[in-house]
Amino acid sequence: MESVITTKSKIQISELAKEITAIAIRWLCMALFFYTAHAKTVDHDRFLKGLARVHLISGFALFLSYAVPIVEFLVALLLLVPNTAKTGLYCFIAVMSAFTIYIASALIWEPTLPCHCGGAIEKLSWGQHIWFNLAFILIAITGVWLINFNKTFKLQKS
């Protein structure tokens, strides 16, 4: 006699709820990058001066002052379009990881830390910045998982 053991998750979430959650995550990440890119663009001179005060990157301050908001806008646009959303989430994770590594490096090697993130996010302490970034990275990873799960589920149904 053969035994078959099946396990069911204790938490059952509908496919629609998973899809809506993935969309909400995309929009949340998109809103964050549109917001910070806009803040850096509107007050570009202040952003540039803040970058120039960080010894680790001062030599690249001018380039970064343009590149960072452009990258944020481009990633936000990838997140906006459903066909590029998964790529957008991967890019979001990469950029947020780079920002987190930059913050951790600055905490280790910089004597003073100017914040030039843009908008209300500048009110966070450096430790809070790291936790904020890590939370968004985890949220984006969840979004990728949900997109992958939904695609796998749809393929199995057909």
From TrEMBL:
Keywords: Membrane, Transmembrane, Transmembrane helix. The chain crosses the membrane at residues 20-37, 57-81, 88-109, 129-149. GO terms for biological process: methylamine metabolic process. Its main location: membrane. Residues 19-146 form the Methylamine utilisation protein MauE domain. It is found in: Membrane. It is a multi-pass membrane protein. This is Methylamine utilisation protein MauE domain-containing protein. It comes from Mucilaginibacter paludis DSM 18603.
